[in-house]
Design brief:
261 residues; Metallo-beta-lactamase, Chain A; seven-stranded mixed β-sheet; six-stranded mixed β-sheet; 7 helices; 17 strands
Amino acid sequence: MITITKVLQNVYVLKDRAGCCGNLVVGKDRALLFDTGSGIDNMKEALRRITELPLIVVNSHGHFDHIGGNCQFEHVYLPKLDFPILENYDTKMLNRWIRDMSKENIWTYLASPKDWECIHPLEFEDFDLGGMECRIISLKGHTEGSIGIWIPSLKLLLSGDALTPVMCLNFQNHLSSQAQYETLVQVQELEFDVYLTSHQSMLYPKSLTRRMMKCIESSRGRKFHFYQYPYPPYTNGWIYLDSLEDEPVALIISEEEKEKM
C-alpha cells in the first residue's frame, strides 16, 4: 500500500511498504515522478489518484529500491553512469530482497532490470512541467551517476539518496567521501530552501547539508566503527557518527576507503 504525503503545494511523497519513496511534482502541463520505489506496491495507481497529467519519470540513481517500480511506466530515464549497476542484479536476488523487505512471499521481478525496455539513458539537462522549470543536477557520491532535480520556482531540490543525513558511500557504484564533500560544496551554490530524499516523507532544510559537510571534515583522522546495513543489500561499511541533534548526521564509508586511511 502506498502512503501519500503532501509536503508542498503540488508536491507529494509516495512511500511504499518498504519505505522507498517517489517524489511527485505536478505542473500545469505535465507531472514529474522522481524515483519509482521498490516495486512492491503500485506507484502508478497511487499517482493517478492525484493527477492524470502526462508523466516524465526519472530515477535518481540505479539502486534497486529506486527503480523497482519502473516497469509500471512506459518510459523511465536513468543516469547513464549508473547503467553498470543494472548488470549486477538478477531476479532471484531481487525477489529475495523484496520478500525480506515486505515480509510477504511475493515475486515482483520477472526479468532482470538490464532487460527492462522501459529504461532509457538520461540525456537532457532540463525540462518544463508547464510554468515550472526543472534542472538536472549531478549529485555524485552515493553513486557515480546520482542526480537531483532542482526546481527554482519552488526553492526545492529532489535528491534521491544523494543528500541523506546518514551519507551512505558503501553501496554499488559509490564514490569517496571527498566526492561527496565536493557535491555538498556544489549544492551550496543552488538557491533552495528545502529538499526531499527518497526514503522519508519530510522536507529537510538546506542548512542540514552544511552539517553534513562538517561531518566529513570532522571525520578525518577520527575513529570509524564497523557497520552492517540491516536491510537489503546488507552491505558492510564503516560509520562515523558526528552529531545527534534533531536530525542525526553520520558518514558510512566502504572497506576500500577505510583501508586507505
